Task: inverse folding
């Protein structure tokens, strides 16, 4: 029974490493001015050697892609890049602006290596934020954020990161991961609604007591 499963697991491991092999091959071919049989063969050999000598955990793909969510993800990324670029440019020429930056820790909703990597890349593409470290096992992102003078600025950056992760999961994550981020989104909305109702009741009670809480 062990001998029967061994070839299957070996082929499964090769299949999981296939996206990395293809990416390394494409990177190798981009370094050359032309593509021929020799460059392809040497690229494949180098890709296999790199994946064997510098072993990385296999990238597990979900096998799911939502074109509409993918389009929304791309459009939102472009809007974020343009807005952040204008904001950073305005900061750089504003003579009275004193920069105050922070290292922020964000707990992601998923533990997927693919989602974590894509989220970190998307954050770093946007000017003003860059990922400085990743705790892969605990799903933590450590990022340097520009212009975080108040707690509200930090909270906004935190929501921005989780929003990027959410859009990536809804576009290409597994069904289980999508359900997790949807549940977290519903919980945040319910929490925000509860907080707003609590504040409204608090202000009403203050008015009835002559302005005293």
Result:
């Amino acid at each position: 029974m062990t001998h029967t499963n061994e070839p299957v697991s070996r082929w499964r491991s090769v299949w999981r490493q296939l996206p990395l092999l293809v990416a390394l091959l494409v990177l190798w071919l981009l370094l050359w001015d032309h593509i021929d049989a020799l460059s392809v063969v040497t690229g494949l050999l180098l890709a296999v050697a790199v994946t064997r000598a510098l072993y990385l955990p296999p990238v597990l793909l979900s096998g799911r892609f939502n074109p509409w969510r993918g389009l929304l993800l791309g459009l939102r990324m472009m809007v974020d890049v343009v807005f952040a670029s204008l904001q950073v440019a305005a900061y750089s020429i504003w003579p009275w602006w004193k920069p105050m930056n922070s290292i922020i820790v964000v707990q992601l909703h998923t533990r997927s290596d693919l989602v974590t990597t894509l989220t970190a890349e998307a954050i770093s593409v946007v000017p003003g934020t860059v990922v400085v470290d990743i705790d892969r096992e605990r799903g933590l992102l450590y990022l340097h954020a520009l212009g975080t003078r108040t707690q509200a600025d930090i909270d906004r950056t935190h929501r921005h990161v989780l929003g990027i992760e959410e859009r990536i999961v809804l576009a290409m994550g597994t069904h289980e991961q999508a359900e997790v981020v949807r549940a977290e989104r519903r919980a945040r909305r319910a929490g925000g609604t509860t907080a707003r109702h609590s504040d409204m009741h608090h202000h009403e009670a203050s008015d009835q007591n002559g302005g005293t809480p």
